[in-house]
Design brief:
Helix content is 58%, strand content 8%. By secondary structure, the protein is an alpha/beta fold.
């Protein structure tokens, strides 16, 4: 994303637009550091797109600069800070990234230097994915979108001049087509809608339209300008505080920040809001460093996540990241951008910067193929594959399998695998239950699955109505109704339940009351013994199972947890922690005629020690408790007996 001010002379400079940049970069940075504070802060990128559409169209359509001069100034403005951040990110990564991470960083470096990051990100991960938080150059996607717009829009302006076509009509048509593409992609391919320029062009066109409708804007009265500025601010605040990542973004909900930015620009620089807030000295200063600030802040966040884990950033750490980002941005502006932009020969500087970008792109490709120094870390630890450990850390924990037919009912995931002749089996519970989907899928692929298997699941959703879900998981309240709906549709013979049982039943003091509710529900589900109910007992949990903890990252080196990787984790302390809840579940099963299934030995490979790696060195776990699909799909256990054997 180009947060960079386009070169403007004193006659056309508007301080309020620098203030808009300040608002936008604050929104993005705060969202990335403290997402709960500003849940819609990601919309700051859309504000920048509107600003760029306005400034570019104003300059080129009025023939203030030639195309050659425009692109020359773009290179001098954007390349210096970008080169600094790319090289600094690569150098830092060489100290504590694992081999495949270093290779991915090399690819991202190449994409960043060639302004193709959005296409790279489109092919690799969603912006809001868990793994996206570990990509130090993910944020360059928006710079790619903007640079591609810089190529497309001036050419379209030139074509409209040559063909004597109304530029206003071209702008309107382009914007409408782009918005229609985005509105379709948000349902068919959200990643396409987010990353590719075709579905984002309408945001730039909103800014361009302000220039082409400028005669009408010039005639606005002060009262209407004030109303426009206030309305724009209201839209921006609503967007920053209320938008959510799953609300059909960017199309059509990006209308809020786009409309807000457009109204603020249309209001002009003379309103009270523009003069006293947006054009204030602190806002203008922050806007002037917004481009390098955007570039610097995300690599710092990503490396902090890589070292300390993807979680909510500690407040003091977040403040430190913001402070360091601002300092680096100010230094970059003062000692790198300003000299190369204004104080060096134009032609020589542009040739040098383009050459440096080419060398950096080549460096990225070299890094992509280079195995990296960290491969030596695992050479003296037999059976350890660092690349597989790293890939396991990035795996999801809620897999939709290839043969699973999925629908979403009242916020819960309902998946169906197979259509065997035997009576169907229902799996119901949270992610610790849904993790067995790959095993069911594997049996189906092998032709061994004898029955239809239905999953009803949701993150942190208990299979029994005994806990009050947290605010973010309120959809879990629908679990009993969805279960009853499925049981009315399918002649289910066996119900298998799994969950993080300690969370479901809470403190032991609450167990007597919750047991009464649970047993009442169990008897209803079993139809007084007509259906078989099986509890999957608590599976082993330990921070030492987490691939993220197998390799400890420091700012200067990596280290391995060799004891865990070679000797495993003793089971006795783990099972001692589960002993009370196991006893409780066993008692409840006996009281209701249900049965239990303990999969600990099948998972761990021993009754005394739990080994967190498979024979090929691949981790079994995605985190401290969830099993990876690659492991569960090949795990033969007591579940197979239920799924393969004929119904008694």
């Amino acid at each position: 994303m180009s947060l960079a001010p386009l070169p403007e002379n004193k006659a056309t400079y508007r301080g309020d637009i620098d203030g808009l940049r300040a608002f936008a970069v604050i929104a993005v940075v705060v969202y990335h550091v403290f997402p709960r504070w500003l849940p819609g802060g990601f919309c700051g990128v859309d504000v920048f797109f509107v600003i760029s559409g306005f400034l570019i169209t104003r300059q080129i359509s009025r023939r203030e600069i030639s195309f050659a001069s425009f692109y020359t100034r773009r290179v001098r403005r954007l390349a210096p800070a970008l080169l600094c951040v790319l090289l600094a990110t690569v150098v830092a990564g060489m100290f504590f990234l694992l081999p495949n991470e270093l290779s991915a960083l090399g690819t991202a470096c190449f994409a960043g230097a060639t302004f193709l990051s959005n296409f790279f990100s489109w092919q690799t991960q969603g912006y809001f994915d868990r793994s996206a938080s570990l990509q130090p150059l993910l944020h360059l996607w928006s710079l790619g979108v903007e640079e591609q717009f810089y190529l497309f829009w001036p050419a379209l302006i030139a074509l409209s001049r040559r063909k004597a076509i109304s530029l206003a009509k071209v702008t309107l048509a382009t914007g409408l087509v782009s918005f229609a593409i985005g509105s379709g992609c948000v349902f068919l391919s959200p990643a396409t809608d987010f990353y590719l320029p075709f579905s984002r062009i309408w945001e730039f066109m909103a800014g361009a339209g302000l220039v082409l409708g400028g005669h009408g804007l010039d005639r606005l009265s002060p009262r209407w300008r004030a109303a426009s500025g206030a309305g724009g601010l209201l839209c921006l605040l609503i967007a920053a505080f209320q938008l959510r990542q799953d609300w059909f973004f960017p199309s059509p909900t990006a209308l809020f920040p786009v409309l807000g930015a457009a109204l603020a620009i249309a209001a002009g620089p003379e309103t009270w809001l523009a003069r006293h807030i947006l054009s204030s000295r602190p806002a203008r200063w922050l806007g002037s460093i917004s481009y390098p600030l955007y570039l610097w802040h995300w690599p710092l966040i990503a490396y902090e996540h890589l070292i300390h884990g993807v979680s909510h950033t500690h407040r003091s750490t977040g403040y430190a990241i913001i402070t360091i980002s601002v300092v680096l941005a100010a230094l970059t502006t003062r000692f790198v951008e300003a000299p190369l932009r204004w104080k060096t020969p134009e032609r020589r500087t542009v040739i040098g910067l383009l050459s440096a970008l080419a060398v950096t792109a080549a460096l990225g490709l070299t890094l992509r193929a280079w195995p990296g120094h960290s491969t030596a870390l695992g050479r003296d630890t037999p059976g350890v594959n660092l690349e597989k450990i790293n890939l396991a850390e990035q795996n999801g924990i809620f897999p939709i399998t290839p043969h699973m037919r999925v629908e979403h009912i009242q916020g819960l995931t309902v998946g169906v695998i197979g259509s065997g002749p035997e009576a169907p089996v229902l799996f119901t519970g949270d992610s610790l239950l849904f993790q067995w989907g790959p095993r069911v899928d594997a049996l189906f692929a092998q032709g061994r699955l004898k029955r239809t298997v239905i999953f009803i699941s949701g993150p942190s959703c208990a299979p029994l109505p005994v806990e009050k879900p947290q605010k973010d998981f309120i959809y879990c309240n629908a679990m009993p109704a969805v279960q009853d709906r499925i049981l009315a549709k399918w002649p289910v013979h066996t119900i298998i339940m799994g969950a993080l049982w300690e969370r479901v039943f809470g403190p032991p003091a609450e167990w007597p009351i919750k047991k009464i509710k649970a047993e009442e529900r169990l008897r209803a589900l079993s139809e007084n013994g007509q259906r078989k109910i099986v509890f999957i007992m608590p599976t082993p949990i330990s921070p030492r199972f987490d691939p993220a903890h197998m390799v400890t990252r420091h700012f200067t080196h990596l280290s391995l947890d060799k004891d865990t990787l070679q000797n495993g984790v003793p089971l006795a302390p783990i099972m001692a922690e589960h002993a009370t809840i196991i006893s409780f579940l066993t008692s409840m099963a006996q009281d209701t005629g249900s049965s239990t299934l303990d999969l600990t030995q099948a998972i761990c490979g021993s009754v005394e020690t739990c080994f967190p790696l498979m024979n090929d060195g691949t981790p079994k776990f995605a985190d401290q408790m969830h099993l990876r699909p690659d492991f569960t799909q090949g795990l033969s256990s007591g579940l197979d007996d239920i799924l393969i054997r004929p119904t008694p």
